[in-house]
Amino acid sequence: MNTLAINRPERIAAVEYLRRKGTDAPASRIVAGLRSTFQRFEQAIDAVPEALRARSPEAGAWSVHEIVDHLVETHRRAVRELEDLCAGRSPSEGPIPARLRSGDPNARSWPSLVRELKDIHASVLTLVASAGDAATTAMAPFVMVVKVDGPNGPETLEWIESLDWKAYAQALRVHTHEHGLQVERTVAAVTRGDD
User: What's the CA gap between 171 and 177, in Å, rounded?
Assistant: First the structure.
């Protein structure tokens, strides 16, 4: 974790974004944003040709299969944390590790992995929709990861932020969106490698 993130403008901007688009936003708007982002992500992975799903663009980079595995593993745990938050309880575990994956990301079949992700998305939407606009004081630690410009190129800024349930739900939307962009970059890179 980067403890120097506390006063960085990127951290301040991220926290302000989650306050505006999460904490202070009506639940109906959060649900609509989640639904749209989840649908775009699901459509993107449904369109990935079978031959490209397990291909990594370079050593150390995740394949699309590994990206989906990461979302299943992190969002499965996030559902439990969101359940607690919506019920007014601060989760006893956490934070969820930023790079969490299963022990063997490629062991599960693609249809099984995608089906579980879609079920998890449905659970998140149901939780947020049923929570309404009730405010609670419950908070959960969330690992924030932001790419920033550094003196030698892009760097990763990482810290733990305590989030209420609406900010937490919005952070899940952003997390899914960012990995959707990663899927697009990965498919483009492995496709270029075929040329």
Answer: 10
